[in-house]
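Recall the central idea of this unit: under ordinary conditions, the amino acid sequence of a chain determines the structure it adopts. In this exercise we apply that idea directly, starting from the sequence alone.
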Amino acid sequence: VCQLIGWLTINHAISHLPATKTSVALLGQTVATAVIAALLLGGVLKVREIAGSLIVLAGIAVTFVKPDVKAG
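Accordingly, the structure predicted from this sequence is:
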């Protein structure tokens, strides 16, 4: 039930946002999951996992910072 509600919520949000930015932002789910697992479940993130998370977040930031190019 929780997964269904989450899936429906994400799909509803996607329908109201630009697809290019939304699809890239959804990559942040894995980073958020790792951080939440570390905080709530006592998981330990390895250096590779932290580095990978930073790369993903940097990629998301680049997508949102660069100006949109309009054809025309």
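Residues 3 and 9 are 10 Å apart (CA to CA).
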